Amino acid sequence: MAEYHVYQPAAGHGLAHDPLNSIVAPRPIGWISTRGADGVANLAPYSFFNLFNYDPPILGFASSGWKDSVRNIAATGEFAWNLVTRPLAEAMNATSAAAPPEVDEFALAGLAAEPCLRIGAPRVAESPVCFECRLSQLIRLKGADGKEIDSWLVLGEAVTVRIDTRLIVEGAYVTTAAQPILRGGGAADYFSIGEEQLFRMRRPG
Ligand SMILES: Cc1cc2nc3c(=O)[nH]c(=O)nc-3n(C[C@H](O)[C@H](O)[C@H](O)COP(=O)(O)O)c2cc1C
Question: What are the tens digits of pLDDT across the range 124-166?
């Protein structure tokens, strides 16, 4: 018989480490580039991130607190998502430093900022995939009691998608070819994926 550790989060998890991040893992990383109203470029990773709709493509991330990325998106209505790959992992990590707004994290991490096609935010030149997004909704999160919390969900429509053609084989995007990395639960934990992890299962007809 299984025994369970059961807890109400509001009363604490009762463990040495909060298990939430390790349970909902690994998570894709939203590497979000923006430009401030003052023109300064900004780049930061967010693992509360996902794709929420196909048509139009809508993706989103959540910020715990009103961080520079959210402030810039609220001001300009634009952001770009850049794929984090294994070769870019350390640079991505460097862009998570708590830098003041006037600091350009592209320069901080030694990355090149390239102009996007349809939005004013820059993209990470070294990243093989970029979605250029226009803000569709900026939502302040609430608890079940209706009280607003200091977390912000940013949703944006991808108006341009850019893919390095080396990742496309016979018309299909090959997920593992880019060596994407995913966020694990521990403070320093990440996962990479390869073809060994792939298995196939069709949906019931
Ligand atoms: C892999 C990774 C994932 C992260 N995910 C989040 C997240 O989902 N939400 C959040 O608020 N901060 C997250 N952070 C921390 C932010 O990147 C960090 O606070 C950063 O300084 C925010 O930058 P900004 O103020 O320029 O937007 C993450 C950091 C790392 C390294």
Answer: 999 999 999 999 999 999 999 999 999 999 999 999 999 999 9
DSSP characters over 27-51: B--EEEEEE-TTS-EEEEEESSEEE
Is any atom of ligand 1 closer than 6 Å to the C-beta of 175?
no
Residue 45's nearest CA partner among 166, 118, 143, 127 is: 127
Distance CA 170, CA 155 (A): 31
Find the radius of gyration of the CA atoms of the chain: 18
Q: 111-126 pLDDT, tens per residue? A: 999 999 999 999 999 9
Residue nearest to atom 6 of ligand 1 (CA): 46
Q: Quickly name the fold that domain 18-192 has.
A: Pnp Oxidase; Chain A (2.30.110)
Take atom 18 of ligand 1 and give the residue whose Cα is closest: 96
* pLDDT tens per residue across span 48-106: 999 999 999 999 999 999 999 999 999 999 999 999 999 999 999 999 999 888 889 99
What are the boundaries of each domain within the chain? Answer: 18-192
Cβ of 95 closer than 6 Å to ligand 1, yes or no, is: no
Rounded distance from Cα 96 to ligand 1 centre (Å): 6
Inter-residue contact 42 to 68 (CB < 8 Å)? yes
